[in-house]
Amino acid sequence: MAMDIILVPGFWLDASSWSDVTPPLVEAGHRVHPLTLPGLESRDAPRAGIGLGDHIDAVVKEMDRIGGPVVLVGHSGGGAIIYGAVDARPDAVTRSIYVDAGPLAEGGVINDGLPAEGDEVPLPPWGGFEDEDLVDLDDELRARFRARAIPQPKGVAYEPMRLHDERRLDVPATVIACEFPSAMLREWIDAGHPFVAELARIREVEYVDLPTGHWPQFTKPAELGRAILAAVERSA
User: Fold this and answer.
1) How far, in Å, CA of 204 to CA of 160, rounded?
2) All domains of the chain, ordered by start, with CATH?
3) Per-residue DSSP letters for 139-169?
4) What is the pLDDT along the chain (236 residues), one digit of tens a residue?
5) Pairing mode of beta strands 152-153, 120-121
6) How far is CA 186 from each of CA 103, 140, 171, 192, rounded to the nearest angstrom?
7) Each residue of 84-115: b (16+ CB within 10 Å) or e?
8) Which InterPro entries does the UniProt entry name for this protein (predicted)?
9) Which of 11, 81, 158, 164 is most open to solvent, judged by the fewest CB atoms within 10 Å of its CB?
10) For residues 37-71, b (16+ Cβ closer than 10 Å) or e, as one string?
11) Residues 6 or more apart whose Cβ sits within 8 Å of residue 27
């Protein structure tokens, strides 16, 4: 069964960041919809006043345009964005797939520790990331990433999540664990760690390990495409 798959990039990235991931999905007959979110259209795009709710609304608008059941895929901060869309349209989502990401609880923020410059958050220096983030991201990939990086609207990183419909907890989820193994996520859930508190509430979650750093769409794109495809086909 062909599915509509909406792909939501993480911070500093636009729709083109999925280009090496989508071939297995397209070859399998699925329809892919990689998104460029508001404020990420170009380095010169206006970013003032754009918050997390605006990015969630952009995903919901695409869901409504498609008009049928969808699979949502979110990388990094895009995981919070797709979770907000699941909350807004729980009946329209057959599965949410979190790529080195997870759902964000009510009142949580994606990352208000990122250094902002005015209305935007530029891609920080590599020294600002943990070693686990940067696994497999060699010098060439780092240069390519930095060359394509677009400043993130500050409000998306800093604005609290607002949730409304607990039917979101009934939507099956897949977590593709990259920089931390899924066994560690399960340990955190068992320990009641607040970082995974919302994930622990989702009634059906499967875990897939894809060991690499935080940007598998660059470091292991073919493997990521196959992992997403497997999750989509379980949903279909």
Assistant:
1) 25
2) 4-235 (3.40.50.1820)
3) HHHHHHHHHH--PEEHHHHHSPP----GGGG
4) 999 999 999 999 999 999 999 999 999 999 999 999 999 999 999 999 999 999 999 999 999 999 989 999 999 999 999 999 999 999 999 999 999 999 999 999 999 999 999 999 999 999 999 999 999 999 999 999 999 999 999 999 999 999 999 999 999 999 999 999 999 999 999 999 998 999 999 999 999 999 999 999 999 999 999 999 999 998 87
5) antiparallel
6) 15, 34, 19, 10
7) bbbbbbbebbbbbbbbbbbbbbeebebeeebe
8) AB_hydrolase_1 (IPR000073), AB_hydrolase_fold (IPR029058), Sec-Metab_Biosynth_Hydrolase (IPR052897)
9) 164
10) bbbbeeeeeebeebbbbbbbbbbbebbeeeeebbb
11) none
Paired tokens of 226 = 């196959």
Q: Position 139: which residue type? A: D
- Residue corresponding to tokens 């699941």: 86
